[in-house]
Amino acid sequence: MYCFEPVFDQRAEILILGTFPSVKSRQAGFYYAHPQNAFWRIIGDLFCGGGEDLRQAGIERKKQALIDNRIALWDVCNTCNIDGSADASIRNVVYNDIAGLIGKTNIKAIFFNGAKAEELFERYKKGKDVSIELPCRRLRSTSPACAVPYEKKKAEWKEAVEMIIAEP
């Protein structure tokens, strides 16, 4: 199984890294397609004017919302073995060229969508002997498997975004 292409343009300032697409996302052909995943709701609430609900938006609208807000989106794993959608089962990872993506952008910070994304990123850096000196922050996973109320997840993501925006 393969991940999706990254969503970005050269103006991107924030890179959001996940692990690998869920079963629902693989079926839909795009990131965070599970109807109970909070990712697109958070992006809409934090970045799209009056809180546009991106959960039902098409792929092109979702891509445009990210690009318009200088957000790059990708997964750490290019290919892997995974049981269903369980991040804990990820093995035999082939990593994406995250350093290469960063080199094509203006990334100022990396956000991890959950602990496993951060763990895999650290393995990537160590295994590839790559030095990426950017502020990094692990955020609660937007997955429905992370049983934290939406408002708490959104507040944590908002705080992280505001910290990056406030930096000179």
The helix count comes to 6
Overall SS class:
alpha/beta
- The CATH architecture assignment turns out to be 3-Layer(aba) Sandwich
Low-pLDDT ranges: none
Quick one: how many beta strands?
A: 6
* Multimeric organization: single chain
Strand line-up in the sheet with most strands = 2-1-5-6
Structure commentary:
There is one protein chain. The chain is an alpha/beta fold and 168 residues long. The protein has one domain: Uracil-DNA Glycosylase, subunit E. It has six helices and six strands. The strands form two sheets. Strands 2-1-5-6 form a four-stranded parallel beta sheet, sandwiched between helices. It has a two-stranded antiparallel ribbon with strand order 3-4. Strand 5, helix 5 (115-128) and strand 6 (136-139) form a beta-alpha-beta unit. The longest helix is centred in the last third of the chain and has 17 residues, at 150-166. It is globular and about 40 Å long. The protein starts with 13 loop residues before the first strand and ends with a helix. The model has no long low-confidence stretch (mean pLDDT 92).
Summarize this structure briefly.
This protein has 168 residues and is of the alpha/beta class. It has helices at 23-28, 39-47, 59-68, 98-103, 115-128, 150-166; strands spanning 14-18, 71-75, 77-81, 91-95, 109-113, 136-139.
